[in-house]
Amino acid sequence: MHQANGGPDIQVQQHNGDFVAENTRNSVENGACASNGEMDRHEDERLKTPMSKSDQDIIRLIGQHLRGLGLNRTAGQLMLESGCRLEHPSAAQFRQHVMDGDWEKAKEDLDELGRLVDEPEGTQKMNFLLLEQKYLEGLQDGRMLEALQCLRHELTPLKYNTERVHELSGYMMCSTPEELMQTAKWEGKGPSSRIKLMEKLQSFLPPSVMLPPRRLQTLLLQAVELQQERCPYHNTTVNTGLENVSLLMDHMCSREQFPCQVMQTLNDHCDEVWFCRFSHNGTMLATGSKDQTLIIWDVDMDTHQLKHRRTFDGHSYGVSYISWSPDDKYVAACGPDDCSELWVWNVETGEQRVKISHSPEDSLICCSFHKDGKKFVCGGTRGQFYQCDLDGNLLDSWEGVRVQCLWCRNDGKTVYAADTHHRIRIYNFEELSDSQVIQEDHPIMSFTVSESGRLALLNVANQGLHLWDLQDRVLVRKFQGVTQGYYAIHSCFGGVNQDFVASGSEDNKVYIWHIRREQPIAVLRGHLRSINCVSWNPALPSMLVSVSDDATIKLWGPAEEHRQRKAQANGAPSSD
Predict the structure, then answer these.
(1) Residues above pLDDT 90, as percent of the chain
(2) Where is the CTLH domain positioned along the sequence (predicted)?
(3) How far apart are the first and last CA of the chain?
(4) Domain identity same for 400 and 526
(5) Mean local confidence (pLDDT), 369-379
(6) How much is the pLDDT for 230?
């Protein structure tokens, strides 16, 4: 990198929001002109076709990117032909001195740049960062006396971040450069640490003086992320960089990559299937039916197929609600309104951990485990609301609360519960306190909460699906399309970052929405009767399961994957 001269003879003019210098001795690399004649010629051309501020910004962004790739002469030629300057000449000189480790000259440059720093204490902070690097490099090189002088007579007099100064003084006890780098969590003297220093220093300078680091890449990444947010079918792991995306076209996922195709139909239940839920790790699925059985399925993470693992039977009223323990070791099963029993099964051994039945007058229709997995809550519409341990011992009870559905919060002590008064209230069993969170105008048949604990998805009788913000206690969105009467239909969040919402419907269809859209992005047909519950695999964003009164379980996946499997089954090579 060539150094740009920036002495007192520089006179800087503002031209269309950018700097154009009259000093012709600056290097081509930093965007200056080679001669007065060339400068005049290019100025004449610019005056004929004035360049907008946005055009100048784009040229500077391209120039910065080219220089970052090491194409310094190309960047200089671009600046020369455009008449723009990549950065203020004093800033270019400052950068060079920092990268060379010439701290005295860098400090002189900073004194000149100080008038351009917007933040009142910005110059002091920049000085501190410079001297910190100078001090650390002195220690690494073994120049202890110079480092001590820097600490006592330069860093300390700044009277800034004294806690950090004390920390720096402790580094003098390090006996080797390796110990210093490890203790200070510093990369050591060299281009890498100086580039990071320069990026910190740049943050104090306005962009008209020096562009923020990698500004073009930042803008492009923001554009890609915005396109992904607006893409209705984007359901893949979010990339942290630009390496795996094309900038030559707008981002758009195909519906073929979305779970809209029946991949597998299971008929092991012999009556209406009322509920389904994947385990927290996504490796198992539990389904409950009117046929008095609870079936556990293994999810093959390679073939994306469900395989029967074990069946738990003897649920005399049927299984209409299921909850997994946080470690996926246990599964709790509840029945419909007239069921007074609750079962907790050990999924690994197949043994019954406990069966709860406090009174034949009870109605235990829903349950949820606390985060620690050592206790759970359960309740029903006859006024039972219990907190129990894994041995079935009653720890606490709340009298007279008619619970339709409930959900334990991650704090381990409070519970959301929907009651028969069209409300969701929050209950604290430790303090025996409660407060209202949501009020609807119609019965809340079921609800579920997002992983973040911020959003709740409510299936409301004769209204459909409502999305609420639990923190702000406001109705965010009413999703359109689903047919919801007075039957209990269970919906779910799902997909990457839980960007999607799915629900069954009484019109025999599965509806899927993007969480930011009211209209469905997909309507799945395949069941013959009402769909009672859907569940999205938390580990496989492209896997969705639905269960129906037609006694079937349907596994949904991408059509693209279905075609590949079909081709492989027929002996044909699969296409990527």
Answers:
(1) 64
(2) 87-146
(3) 44
(4) yes
(5) 93
(6) 80
Task: Identify which has the larger pLDDT, 1 or 342.
Answer: 342
Q: Give yes or no: residues 436 and 319 share one domain.
A: yes
Closest CA to 477 of 445, 501, 448: 501
Joined tokens for residue 441: 């105008």
The two three-digit tokens of residue 56, written as one number: 């100048």
* One domain, residues 245 and 166: no
Q: Give the per-residue pLDDT at 30.
A: 46
- Comparing C-alpha atoms, which of 388, 384, 395 is closest to residue 417? 384
For 153-173, the pLDDT digits (tens) are: 999 999 999 999 999 999 999
Examine the domain organization and report whether 358 and 233 are in the same domain: no
Q: How far apart are CA 31 and CA 205, in angstroms?
A: 19
Within-domain flag for 76: yes
Element (H, E) at 226: helix 215-230
| pTM (two decimals) | 0.71
Residues 353 and 432 in one domain: yes
- Does 131 share its domain with 60? no
pLDDT class of 31 with cuts at 50, 70, 90: very low
Residues 263, 142, single domain; the answer is no
59 and 157 belong to one structural domain? no
Count of the separate structural domains present in the chain = 4
Token pair 């900073």 in the structure block, residue: 110
- 225, two tokens: 């992320």
What is the domain range of residue 306?
A: 255-569
Question: What does the alpha-carbon distance between residue 552 and residue 289 come to, in Å, rounded to a whole number?
Answer: 10
**pLDDT of residue 400 exceeding 90:** no
